[in-house]
Amino acid sequence: MSRSPLTLDPTNEEINEVRRRLRNTRWPASWPVTGWEAGTDQEELRRLVSYWAEDFDWEAQQRHIHALPWNTADIDGTAVAYLRFDPEKQGGLPVILTNGWPSTALELVALAERLAAPSRFGGSSETAVTVIVPALPGLPFSPQRPSLHDQTHELWHRLMTDHLGFDRYAAHGGDLGAGITSRLAAAHPHAVAGIHLLAVAAPLQIDPATISPEEQEHLERVNAWVAGEGAYQHLQQTRPLTLAPALSDSPAGLLSWILEKHRAWSDCGGDVSTRFSDDYLLTLASVYWFTKSIGTSFRPYYEFAAGFTTRVDQVRVPTAVALFPFDLAQPPRSWAARSYQVTRYTRMPRGGHFAPHEEPELLANDITAFWHTL
After folding, report:
1. How many distinct helices (H) and strands (E) make up the chain?
2. What is the extent of the structural domain holding 106?
3. What is the CATH number of the domain that holds 168?
4. What predicted TM-score, i.e. pTM, was given to this entire model?
């Protein structure tokens, strides 16, 4: 059995400690609202906290994580863990996949398996490609995040070329991963053959007189989302170190922060269990807890807002955009085309922000169809 090079092996003492904390959660006083109206449903949270403390089998989940094809690379002194899925049949451009927040590289496993071994899922082995899934620095599995001025997309390029030896490759990303993938293509168009995105960067400069009615509706929807859903982002951009100690000290608080996003941003119809099992959510919370990485996972938000992250201007490689209806934004094709060379634009029938987990088949098929055009 292969193991993560940055081994995730909490001791029995650490496992017992998180269970003790969960059992002794200091719950807030009740409110005169119920359900999800004011945030995380406290009844659902209490149920999951009880399951995490008493019945969740962390050791079984850990064995599954360790069985994945982990590798590690030292990129200019930064240790990057990554998953490598070799193709069932050689050929095709290798691809690097990047997740968003609040996720981990584990969210991309189902998608990676379909791209590397499509015949296992009813596809053709002719479309198989090598798939690389690096763990974002500062998130679980690669908890070390480099200096404020280091750029993740440059780590990815070094990983793919200097470490793995690929001259040309393709890339996919959503959320934070979409920004990294966009910057990667903009900086290295000679190496990046094409990119597939679940979100796009807004144009750096735009003449208001050129905004179409469809684009104006998109901007109004974005503003409405920021007002109703964007408090987490504003806090993580501006005061992350105020929030980090609370979520690093309370597993129930950490779970609450993660759980609410999985309900609000997924195609679950209000019932998070229709898309995410208890074990999936608690494995996610556990890897953030045991790697102490929820605080460092906020750094990409802070670094972008503070101006340390390179802005996306013009991306001049072929770009596919796939929009899932319950994701955070639904930009029209014309909006994406202001900054990208859009050659494929797909509106999916279902799915949300966590599309690689929610709808891996839909996503794999769209990526494969796009790769055929490169």
Report:
1. 15, 8
2. 68-210+310-371
3. 3.40.50.1820
4. 0.96
